Amino acid sequence: MTPEAIEGFEDIGFGGGQRAIFASFPTRSRGRVVDEPASRTRTDFQRDRDRIVHSTAFRRLKHKTQVFFSHEGDHYRTRLTHTIEVAQIARALARAFRLDEDLAEAVALVHDFGHTPFGHTGEDVLDACMAEHGGFDHNAQALRVVTQLERRYADFDGLNLTWETLEGLVKHNGPPAEPVPDTVLRYCEVQDLEIACRAGLEAQLAAISDDIAYNTHDIDDGLRAGLLSFEMLRDVRLTRDILDEVDGRYPELDDARRGHETTRRLMTRMVEDVIRQTQKNIDRVRPESVIDIYAAGETLGSFSPDMAALERELKAFMFANMYRHPSVMRLRADAEQVVRDLFQVFRADPKRMGGVWSEELRRHRVESIERHVADYLAGMTDTFALSEHRRLFDRTPELR
User: Fold this and answer.
1) Ranges of residues in the chain whose predicted pLDDT is under 70
2) pLDDT at 105
3) 114, 212, 259, 274: least surrounded by Cβ within 10 Å?
4) What is each CA distance from 86 to 104, 206, 313, in whole angstroms?
């Protein structure tokens, strides 16, 4: 412990202030697969975050679906705006516990890198297409992106992120479910991510920030799209209580402000609940280092039991009334066709991918044709997938 440290906290350096003893410390990072000289101005976790933000995969999130396809309106969330919102919440939660905010932000910013075009629809189709070739999982695909598919640096493929950022990416929702994707298992032969253990608390809080962000902001988008109404939200205990609070204080509020007041209060209520419950968990487990967080055998960054029940009810409501709304399902069927058609045509004739993707096949630098095609498709934006389909087929769904 440094001379400046106080009980329970330790200085992180680079002007970062003091951190909780159970935080992840960049000065104690388990390092990168390819050694690099330390930066004189940034911690290792700051460098990870910056590399993620400057990556091609990050920019592509701008035109990838969250719920509504990107052409349906400028005000709906995309994967990019959702990711930025998750990062804001993750950073706030990390600050509340004196954790490494840069690491929490890095995990939040990278967590959706593996998503296909057209949201979970594209992932489901690609997983079905890859059923006999190792399947498709967006978390495993994100690992492929940051360790193999981003090719910007002279000394290595990928972004050469630290162990802590990679283990947070792979395990932010807990240890990977069986069967563990081959991508994760193969990477662990190079750098063991200890997938049987929990991730650090920064990653755990990034994961629950994802839940908070899409629960609140999907309501905002649903109201804007007309798929949800305030009366429908009164069928859910959590949003009914908040609407009563808003309407009691602002009885003449217009719908736009009424919706914003509802979602901002919902976010605040969830964030404050996570802070209270996570502190209770920490007080009970009493971790003395990040190693104790890994070995706790449970997720410490969590909702309270009461909030978890309310959140499950809200999710069930959203699935029934928004994510499975007939208009969304109709577009989902059209999006499935686009992804399935593209997979089949590129698998049958990989040269039609063109550019570097065809060149890598010629040089035999790929695991298999199917995985190569899946990498290509997963990296597409909604707009590029539709453009490629129009190039290759006589008829392309409008997705409107």
Assistant:
1) 1-17, 67-75, 362-366, 400
2) 98
3) 259
4) 10, 7, 21
**Number of other residues whose CB lies within 10 A of the CB of residue 254:** 8
In sequence order, the β-bridge partners of residue 9 are 20
**Cβ neighbour number for residue 346 with a 10 Å cutoff:** 22
Q: Which residue has the tokens 């992120």?
A: 161
* Superfamily in which the 19-325 domain is placed by CATH: Hypothetical protein af1432 (1.10.3210.10)
| Predicted local confidence at residue 68, as pLDDT | 57
pLDDT score, position 246: 98
Confidence at residue 97, expressed as pLDDT on a 0 to 100 scale: 98
> For residue 48, which of 141, 146, 145, 140 has the smallest C-alpha distance?
146
Supply the angle between the helices 305-318 and 201-225 in degrees, to the nearest 10: 40
